[in-house]
Amino acid sequence: MKLLVLLSRVPYPLEKGDKLRAYHLITRLARKHEVYLFCLSDTPTDPAHVEHLRGLCAHIEVVHLPRWRIILKLLTALFARLPVQVVYFHHRHAQRRIDAVIDSFRPDHIMCQLVRTTEYVRHRFDLPKTLDYMDTLSKGMERRTETAPFYLRPIFRMETRRLIRYENLMFDQFDNRVIISAQDRDYIYHPLRDTMAVLPNGVDTGHFHPMPQEPHYDLLFTGNMNYPPNIDSVLYLVNRVLPIVRRKRPQTSLLISGVDPTARVRDLARQDPLITVTGWVRDIRISYASARIFAAPMQIGTGLQNKLLEAMAMGIPCITSALANNAVGARPNEEVLIGENPEQYAAHILDLLEDPALRQRIATNGNRFVRTQFDWDVAAGKLDTLITEATAAGQ
């Protein structure tokens, strides 16, 4: 089968959640099908990264979205009906390239990741299509509205309404709709949302596994550190949880590791000698192995937290919120610890730091849970079945 895949980013290196999901699913689909990978990119692309992907797919094309074009598009976004996120990624020169690829490649099926890319093919009713919502962008925007500065809230509310409307519209224009968790599926407002296929992420347990290394830090947080939910989480950890922990353990240290830390995140290390902010690291496993506890008190955001799956696979005890664990499904107090307020998070951290046996129990159970429940081959196999059946039905 000829499969055209549309992404809003080049899916390598794997420093962001959408890249991780796209990379592992496409790698496996390309073993059975002729995949044409079409990527948009709003940043310069390293040729070595493209060459790496070229070794996985039959064809690849990257269309750069210049910053000046994006700015011009965003100036019109407030007066458009489309969500700002869709306007940001939809450009006429990219539309021409996609149309040309469809005409020359003649795909049997089209797959889009995120509604950011769907505008390019929404009217191609002559071809079967699959939309990977990944997570529910409208719900994520709604949650960001609650904590946004007052002057941004009207814009965020407008974007939430547009995303809800657009997510529902795209639901009706694609043959298959998949999403990362049952929790995110239930946030979709469409009346037929229960027909969506839940396709959780996997974990590369051959890559992420316990490593024999002496921890240098007490706590760890990882992730894309210019992503608002991650910024919100790490500020919550530093400003509201850590002071409580340090009343009993004044020297408690924290490692914040992840790509593109904002100025607010970098300032945390400048203000506190026991906090380290690394920025991008070549091998994130070293960061995981450097800490005794993984703490991710996620307060906003949607989707499946890959950071939790990776930390569990690395054999590190994890503390997170019910919001984040709802998508993961780990058993509280057995495979993961759940906090509901700063005092509970602090209590869990102190318990784990003071009780090596408890650390080992939660770590071992979490590792076993991830290894048995999250498998990229299973996820890709389910997606392949959906694509193959939709294509056969359309012939």
Outline the low-pLDDT stretches: none
Reading off the top of the CATH hierarchy, the class of the largest domain is best stated as: Alpha Beta
Oligomer: single chain
Q: Whole-Å distance between the termini?
A: 12 Å
Overall 3D geometry? globular
- Mean model confidence by pLDDT: 95
Walkthrough of the structure:
It is a single chain. By secondary structure, this protein is α/β, with parallel strands linked by helices. The chain folds into two domains: 2-202 and 375-394, 3-Layer(aba) Sandwich (Rossmann fold), CATH 3.40.50; 217-373, 3-Layer(aba) Sandwich (Rossmann fold). The chain has 16 helices and 13 strands. The chain has helices at residues 17-29, 47-54, 67-77, 84-89, 92-105, 137-147, 153-173, 182-187, 228-248, 263-271, 284-289, 306-313, 322-328, 342-354, 356-373, 376-394, and strands spanning 2-7, 34-41, 59-64, 109-113, 129-134, 176-179, 197-198, 217-222, 254-257, 275-279, 291-296, 318-321, 337-339. It has a seven-stranded parallel beta sheet, with helices on both faces. A six-stranded parallel beta sheet has the order 10-9-8-11-12-13, sandwiched between helices. Helix 1 (17-29) packs across helix 16 (376-394), helix 12 (306-313) packs across helix 15 and helix 14 (342-354) crosses helix 15 (356-373). The chain is globular.
